[in-house]
Amino acid sequence: METLRALRYSFYLIFHPFDGFWDLKHEKRGNLKAAIIIVFLLCVTFILRRQLTGFIFNTVKLIELNIFLEISSVIVPFLLWCIANWCLTTLMDGEGSFKDIVITSAYALTPIIIINLPLIPFSNVITAEEGAFFYFFNSLAVAWSALLMVIGTSVVHQYSMRKAIFTCILIVVGMGIIIFIALLFFNLIHQMYWFFYSIYKEISLRM
């Protein structure tokens, strides 16, 4: 029941973000379990959207659909955001813990779920000429969640809105840096593997 109440609270939060995020952190109106469920529901939403969106608006070939890739397209950016958020705000006197960041960020994604789920059947009954409505609500969901991310960052770390916006820009840059470093690391590991493998092959042929 506690988790259910925490999930229901997300509907209040998206319409009253300042009070909502404050109570989320200080009054414990949400919890980590509910946050994980929200991220899981977002993954399900993305999978259903790829599979069931009307063919007019669906550019994905179902035969090429990779569920694990779709899940990764949600989980990886979410984790990168939380990690970059925690790393930067720790240096910038942020008051939110990593757990606070995860919960706040997950709750901020709620509009993407509640808007995109109805859009799936809607996309199957509208024509291409009415597609403007489909793209409008798509954009609204992303913009709404982005705004909640900024407000959530402001409230959880006790930042002004100007500092929160600046911090969110830095977080996005930080995500790019993390990806760049990760790619360099895996590339280095790959090269080291082939270097030692070639040495091993050379020794094996000479023995």
Secondary-structure map:
Layout: H1 2-13, H2 17-26, H3 32-52, H4 67-91, H5 98-108, H6 110-123, H7 131-157, H8 161-206
Helix pairs in contact: 1-2, 1-3, 2-7, 3-4, 3-5, 3-6, 4-5, 4-8, 5-7, 6-7, 7-8
What does this structure look like?
The protein is mainly α and 207 residues long. It has one domain (2-171). The protein has helices spanning 2-13, 17-26, 32-52, 67-91, 98-108, 110-123, 131-157, 161-206. The longest helix is centred in the last third of the chain and has 46 residues, at 161-206. The chain is globular, with a radius of gyration of 21 Å. The model has no long low-confidence stretch (mean pLDDT 91).
Overall shape: it is globular
Helix content: over 70%
In percent terms, what proportion of residues is strand?
A: under 5%
The helix-strand sequence is: HHHHHHHH
Number of helical stretches of at least 4 residues: 8
Number of domains: 1
Give the biggest beta sheet: none
Structural class category: mainly alpha
Number of strands: 0
N-to-C span: 68 Å
